[in-house]
Amino acid sequence: MKKNLVLLLIILIGSFTACRSGQKKDGKMENKQGTMLKIETSMGDIIVKLYDETPKHRDNFIKLAKESTYEGTLFHRVIKDFMIQAGDPDSKDAPKGKMLGSGDVGYTIPAEFVYPKYFHKKGVLSAARQGDDVNPKKESSGCQFYIVTGKVYSDSTLLGMEQKMNEGKLTSIFNALAQKQMKEIYKMRKANDQEGLYQLQEKIYAQAEAEAAKQPDFHFTPEQVKAYTTVGGTPHLDNQYTVFGEVVEGMDVVDKIQQVKTDRSDRPVDDVKIIKVSVID
Questions:
Q1: Nearest residue to 73 (alpha-carbon basis) of 85, 57, 90, 59
Q2: Who wins on pLDDT, 11 or 32?
């Protein structure tokens, strides 16, 4: 393990870059209290409920709906058995072949993780965001969102994911601590101070071990296991992106959208358009 962490520090020294990358009832997800909105699309209507426990995301989504921000935008990124994404203002009247997904409204929203209560089961509404390398606080896009479709997992696969996440805990902590030492690493590298870099590596490794020892091992909750082994979802996104609502009607429409033909950039060949988003009184 320590050798792998050493390699991580070498990579950081060499490049300093990182890659971006409810229960059902009669065919509908169970409806509980929360603000309801209708997303009218060219393939049918989707009713979503926004969670009161994520007020910043709830209020922003309502604001954008009332301002007609989403009217005419597209589901610009569709990946079967994963999710359907929309909300890019640049997708309005976008010509065929135009790369989409980088449009925004000029602000981000602080992360509101209500985990493990809300997680990435099929049908949840979540906020898209930029990657950790440029967005370490995991702040959400001010407008782009996605609806999870995902897939069903076996118990053994979930156990394997738990094991992998626990094994990667030390590596993740080491990497985060190393990122905070970038200025010092730059300085040592410029001076060709190999001994200093080695000592810094040992210091970071010791800190990572101490921090990892304080953190309990990860385990999926019984609710997560039940959802991921029945309706499905995308467990690897949990606690990484803010979940702020869920579909209460129209999952059949979501499923139809995820089946459409897409191009190499995951944009539907035939546009799937949002006609209107409105609050249901």
A1: 90
A2: 32
Contact indicator for 188, 10 with CB cutoff of 8 Å: no
pLDDT at 12: 43
CB atoms closer than 10 angstroms to residue 126: 25
Q: Taking the CB of residue 16, how many other CB atoms lie within 10 A of it?
A: 13
Give the tens place of pLDDT for each residue, 213-229: 898 989 999 999 999 99
- pLDDT bucket at 34, cuts 50 / 70 / 90: confident
Using alpha carbons, select from 101, 126, 104, 117 the residue that is nearest to residue 50. 126
Beta bridge partners of 240: none
* Alpha helix ranges (H) inside the chain: 2-15, 55-66, 155-167, 169-180, 182-190, 194-214, 222-228, 251-258
Q: Average pLDDT for residues 21-35, to the nearest whole number?
A: 48
The span from the CA of 125 to the CA of 34, in Å, is 13
Number of compact structural domains in the chain: 2
In this structure, the answer to whether residues 166 and 190 fall within a common structural domain is: yes
Same domain membership, residue 170 and residue 58: no
Judge if 178 and 256 occupy the same domain: no
Query: Which two tokens mark 175?
Result: 């990497």
**Mean pLDDT calculated for residue range 65-73:** 98
Distance (Å, rounded) from C-alpha 31 to C-alpha 247?
Answer: 9
Amino acid at site 116: P
Other beta carbons less than 10 A from residue 62's beta carbon: 16
Instruction: For residue 30, give its domain range.
Output: 24-155+230-280
Residue 106 sits in a domain whose CATH number is 2.40.100.10
The overall average pLDDT reported for the chain is 89
Name the β-bridge partners of 109: 140
Q: Are residues 140 and 206 in the same domain?
A: no
